[in-house]
Amino acid sequence: MALNGRDVISLTTDKLSADAVSESVTCASCGAISLFIGTTRDHFEGKKVVRLEYEAYVPMAELELRKICSDIRTKWQSVRHINIQHRLGVVPVTEASVIIGISSPHRSDSLEAVKFCIDTLKATVPIWKKEIYESGEPRWKENKECLWADGGKDPKC
Amino acid sequence: MALNGRDVISLTTDKLSADAVSESVTCASCGAISLFIGTTRDHFEGKKVVRLEYEAYVPMAELELRKICSDIRTKWQSVRHINIQHRLGVVPVTEASVIIGISSPHRSDSLEAVKFCIDTLKATVPIWKKEIYESGEPRWKENKECLWADGGKDPKC
Amino acid sequence: MNGFVDAQVSVLYFAKSAELTGLKSELITVSSNVTSVQLWQHLEEKHPRLAVLRDQVVLAVRQEYVPLSEQPLTLREGDEVAVIPPLSGG
Amino acid sequence: MNGFVDAQVSVLYFAKSAELTGLKSELITVSSNVTSVQLWQHLEEKHPRLAVLRDQVVLAVRQEYVPLSEQPLTLREGDEVAVIPPLSGG
């Protein structure tokens, strides 16, 4: 881990705040903070989504998030602070389900690291989302990044 | 411009807020918001920076920022909302000088568009930063992205 | 006797697997030498509705992912095994 | 007479150029057919300290960038010309 680098990971039922994440990764020697905010959408295949519910295998999710932090620090050694917040429980539409904040002296590192972080999170962190629609059966979603989801399987295999 | 896409541009002496930018680009049909926050550093070549001062050729800066928005919408047609805030006047160290927020249905578009936006802003928008040090002469900075700065010139030309 | 002892382990169910079994967790006793495929078959026998997940599930043993395979799991008494349907975090 | 009229234009100075001239803006009168290099030379004659910027400056005419070149600027009465030192926004 970089000198004084801080990894903050949080799985919470509270509303997420971009300012709180941004402040927690701010550092006096960094010029760049990159943030990614995943928000919940209001429609899926023409059905109106009324809310989302997230659940996690909490201790393992934290473990996998720590692995992502460690991988980021191997790939982008100038990264300073990392904060990954994922919301659990009921999330109203348009509210943030995930916020990732990463600081670095130069912007390309934090921008690339944020992209890697959200891509990897979707593939490896045991968290699940259920969409509840105005009408029709609720549905557990599947990330295409997840290797054992239908969408993640190589059709040629 | 995409259906209902909103370009918000602001040059302001007020403190910038990541939450305000994030909220202004939130949309019910977008899953992704990418933010870039440029912060002011506390050191330059071993000298302690006490504050920064930004000035802009305001109407032309707004014009150039609008051109960037228009270029983003040509390159990433799924981009929904764009908000670019740049602070002017005195900016204390570690506070944000620029915040860019872009929303899109899929995250790769907003992530790439944010990177393009900050890269292009540094190269083309008439804004200048002066660093004031604890000791020694203040210094006007030069972005290496600016084609007519010393750092922007091809050394072989 | 194959030289392997039985181990009581807790099985955690998440997302769709929790809905299909109606359980968040349960204790089961299996051979410590069971493979992940055999363990899955055992869970399917107890909870036939899990069959719909067969081609898109992995297990986590002691919080590490384990695909369904013929590798022995070398379970220890008290281990935690989780049923991991396709992820949808983010 | 070259067929071109004189035009009074306002020149805006920013950042280091404002410090070097001690001015934020001034009105000057030049031939409407002046090139950007000639205009810059005119400004340097008025404000010799601007010379340090010569190799790293562009102009903006009617809020569009114009590099120093032999192209005529076709200035019109009341046009806004700006001296643009290297940018450092962001």
Give short descriptive properties of this protein.
heterotetramer, A: 157 residues, alpha+beta, Aldehyde Oxidoreductase, domain 3, five-stranded antiparallel beta sheet, four-stranded mixed beta sheet, 3 helices, 9 strands, elongated, C: 90 residues, Ubiquitin-like (UB roll), five-stranded mixed beta sheet, 2 helices, 20% helix, transferase (chains A, B)
Shape-level CATH architecture of chain A: Alpha-Beta Complex
Uncertain stretches of 5 or more adjacent residues of chain A: none
| Helix segment tally of chain A | 3
Distance, first to last CA of chain A: 38 Å
Fraction in beta strands of chain C = 25-35%
Find the structural class of chain C using helix and strand composition.
alpha+beta
Question: Strand share of the residues of chain A?
Answer: 25-35%
**Fold-level CATH name of chain A:** Aldehyde Oxidoreductase, domain 3
Sequence stretches where pLDDT stays below 50 over 5 or more residues of chain C: none
- Main sheet: strands, sense, barrel of chain C: 5 strands, mixed
Largest chain interface and its two residue counts? Answer: A-B, 34 and 34 residues
Q: What is the string of helix and strand elements of chain C?
A: EHEHEEE
In terms of quaternary structure, the protein is heterotetramer
Describe this structure in words.
The complex is a heterotetramer, with 2 copies of chain A (157 residues) and 2 copies of chain C (90 residues). The mean pLDDT of chain A is 93. The longest helix of chain A is centred in the middle third of the chain and has 18 residues, at 58-75. Chain A has a single domain (7-141), classed as Molybdopterin biosynthesis MoaE subunit (Aldehyde Oxidoreductase, domain 3, Alpha-Beta Complex). In chain A, the strands form 2 sheets. In chain A, strands 3, 4, 6, 8 and 9 form a 5-stranded antiparallel beta sheet that branches. In chain A, strands 1-5-7-2 form a 4-stranded mixed beta sheet, sandwiched between helices. Chain A has 157 residues and is an alpha+beta fold. Helix content of chain A is 28%, strand content 34%. In chain A, α2 packs antiparallel against α3. With 90 residues, chain C is an alpha+beta fold. The N and C termini of chain C lie far apart (47 Å). Chain C has one domain: Roll (Ubiquitin-like (UB roll)). Chain C is 20% helix and 30% strand. Chain C contains 2 helices and 5 strands, in the order βαβαβββ. The radius of gyration of chain C is 12 Å and the shape is globular. The longest helix of chain C is centred in the middle third of the chain and has 11 residues, at 36-46. The A-B interface holds A 17-19, 21-22, 26-43, 93-94, 96, 103, 105, 107-108, 111, 114-115, 118 and B 17-19, 21-22, 26-43, 93-94, 96, 103, 105, 107-108, 111, 114-115, 118.
